Amino acid sequence: MELEDLRIVILDERESGKLTTISPDIFEKAQERLRELYSQAQSIDNFLTDRGSDLMNEIDSLKVTLNDISRERFKKILKMAINQMDTHYVDPLELRKMISEEREMYDDIRAAISTCRHSLIDGAIAERMKSVPETPLSVSEDGGADLPDEGEVCSGESEIPVPIGGGYDLVHVLDDIEPFMGTDGRIYSLIKDDLVSLPLRNAQVLYERNIALNIKVSK
């Protein structure tokens, strides 16, 4: 992997608003090239010569370019993870453009965002609800809850979701699912590969139908 090849990659990455397709072993080949350059540098007695200066410049430029490529791609991957949490959608073509290490990082980011959001938002709401009388929702056979009659839906501080049965599970959705109301009163519109916190009773129904997997996030 030569420096000029990497410079073409970073130019493409900067010009595109989406991830570009790169070789899965691009970083591995670049590391091999770095090792070759370091080996050549070790055989030079005087780095004040043109050859010594050229070697050091190439090593420095190659490392800077690798860092630029990864930084540009990290920014796009982080944006994708945040957007998916808001829209529950990600372009499958974009996922396939990630190399394996990037995909692993993307999944970890999504899981971390979901866990943090659940802790900050759902946890805080649950604490406030301790002083508010609970109005339980009836659960249908498909695991959803019956929709309230028109006019019963509240807004603002009084619209506080409380899952029947208590607690949530972080789940990985294995297939597209028709929108449903959870036992916490929220409407869930899920698609394949979503990572989402669901009320326990709703999650258990999806497990039984083999359309969701429980995700346990280690601390």
- Count the E strands: 5
**N→C terminal distance:** 38 Å
Placed side by side, the strands forming the largest sheet appear as 4-1-5
Share in β-strands: 5-15%
- Mean pLDDT, rounded to whole units? 79
SSE string, helices as H and strands as E: HHHHHEEEEHE
**Structural class designation:** mainly alpha
Low-confidence stretches: 135-139, 142-160
Question: Could you describe the 3D structure shown?
Answer:
This is DNA replication complex GINS family protein. This protein is mainly alpha-helical and 219 residues long. The protein has 6 helices and 5 strands. The strands form 2 sheets. Strands 4-1-5 form a 3-stranded antiparallel beta sheet. A two-stranded antiparallel ribbon has the order 2-3. Helix 2 packs antiparallel against helix 3 and helix 3 packs across helix 5. About 11% of the residues have low confidence.
